[in-house]
Amino acid sequence: MNKFFIMLAHTYMNRVKSKSFLITTILTVVLVFALTNLQTIIEKFGGGDEEKQVAVVTDNEEWFQSLEQVLATNENYTLESFDGSLEKAKEEVEAGTFHSVVEIKEGQEGLPEGTYYANQIANTGDSEPIRQALQQVKVGIVTENAEVSPSTIQKISSPVAFDLVALEESAKSAEELSQTRGLVYVMLFFMYFSVMMYGNMISTEVATEKSSRVMEILISSVSPVSQMFAKIIGIALVGLTQFTILLLVGYFGIQQAMNSDNASLLDSFGFTEVQGSTIVYAVVFFVLGYLLYATLAAMLGSLVSRLEDAQQIVAPMMMLVVAAFMIAVFGLSVPDATFITISSYIPFFTPLIMFLRVGMLDIPVWEIILSLSILVASIVLLGIVGARVYRGGVLMYGKSSSLKDFKKALQLSKKEG
Fold first, then answer.
1. 140, 62 contact by CB (below 8 A)
2. Residue 189: which of 289, 280, 100 has the closest Cα?
3. At the top level of CATH, which class does the domain 49-157 belong to?
4. Maximum separation of any 2 CA atoms in the chain, in Å
5. CATH 3.40.190.10 placement within the chain
6. C-alpha count within 13 angstroms, C-beta hemisphere, residue 160
7. Does the N terminus or the C terminus of the chain have fewer Cβ atoms within 10 A?
């Protein structure tokens, strides 16, 4: 057992001290902090509060006044009626006197039509407020000509009140579903990137040791099975370390953005209505999903002895993760579909899709127990087979990039045993 912990600590420390871990963690921390304070950064460097002087060229003074009145609530825009020609106004824009110029002329049925001129029109955020304001001016003119009161138009255009109420007492409310959907989406990404990153890390760890012939020394003192699970748990601790750092950075970043010191973790991330059981299921399915894919990655990594081969041999596993992710994303909108229900019992899809169903639906407890039983049984079975393949695979050297070596690894494990 002491040797197992020595291998585990070696795997953990070796990865945590690696340059790749430090660089990816630092870059991700910077990205998370930037995303949680994106609005502050945009306001500080994006010039979003800069006042824009807009020249308006029109022969209809009433249209200008109406447009100015509608945009009065937007502090970022100042309108100025331009007495000169449109060409002169364009020259003023190019010279920097005005940010842009809007030409308003009479169109069909005597209604206003606008043309927006600026040095650059790639940023639609600059022109959109003016377009919307002119649209309101047009609506006002049409309603006035039709002798329809603005209040009537407002009532017509306002959205209809439409509430969602579940009749079953145990069913989730609309607010709970909305927040649970967000948590499920976060879980999907965490699981997806964890398997892609750390599963690949496990396979390359084994291949690296084989390519450097370190494995020959290790197997003489530590059993291959202990090596395999020491790497799986060691890499899991690496992932836990990285996720903890990112979660803390995200938490404090959101706290800073909210200027609140007493909000809870769930409050900060907007999950106030999420049930505690959903959080527990998220942890359970995440851990079991990691164990399933990590065991498969270690087994596949033992079949190769070169890094380039490791990338190729784990490709089928990565395709399984991508398929599970795509099905789960589809299931976010239709979690009760038959296809989603069936997929939730397929072991390699269960961690994502069954958690999706648990989070979004009120399903019987026996379904959850059945899916967890299938998942645990699959992990145990894969662990037994994987340990045998690992035991024989670590003794295999030379070029190998196909699953044909699976049988050869099993045969070597019997001889070695």
1. no
2. 289
3. alpha beta
4. 96
5. 49-157
6. 2
7. N
Grouping H, G, I as helix, E, B as strand and the rest as coil, residue 75 is coil
Kindly give the pairing relationship between strand 112-118 and strand 100-106: antiparallel
Q: What is the DSSP string of 141-173?
A: HHHHHTT--HHHHHHHHSPPP-----SSTTSPP
With contact defined as beta carbons under 8 Å apart, do 347 and 372 qualify?
Answer: no
Cα dihedral sign for 397, 400, 402, 408?
negative
Per-residue pLDDT band for 167 (boundaries 50, 70, 90) equals: low
The mean pLDDT of 130-157, rounded to a whole number, is 82
Neighbours of 278 (CB within 10 A): 20
**Within 10 Å of residue 10's Cβ, how many Cβ atoms?**
14
Q: What is the 3-state secondary structure (H, E, C) of 97-158?
A: CCCEEEEEEECHHHCEEEEEEECCCCCHHHHHHHHHHHHHHHHHHHHHHCCCCHHHHHHHHC
What is the tens place of the pLDDT at every residue in 298-356?
Answer: 777 777 666 666 777 777 888 888 888 889 888 888 888 899 999 999 999 998 899 88
Cα-Cα-Cα-Cα dihedral sign, residues 305, 306, 308, 310 = positive
Mean pLDDT value across residues 38-48 = 61
Beta strands 52-58 and 112-118 are unpaired
Q: Which two tokens stand for residue 19?
A: 């340059």
Q: Specify the higher pLDDT residue, 2 or 19.
A: 19
Distance CA 344, CA 328 (A): 9
* Residues 6 or more apart whose Cβ sits within 8 Å of residue 154: none
User: For 263, phi and psi rounded to 5 degrees?
Assistant: -80, 145
Helix and strand tally (H, E) in the chain?
A: 19, 4
pTM: 0.65
- Which runs of consecutive H residues, i.e. helices, occur in 302-337? 307-313, 315-331
CB atoms within 10 A of CB 390: 27
Over range 221-232, report the average pLDDT: 72
Are the CB atoms for 54 and 98 separated by under 8 Å?
yes
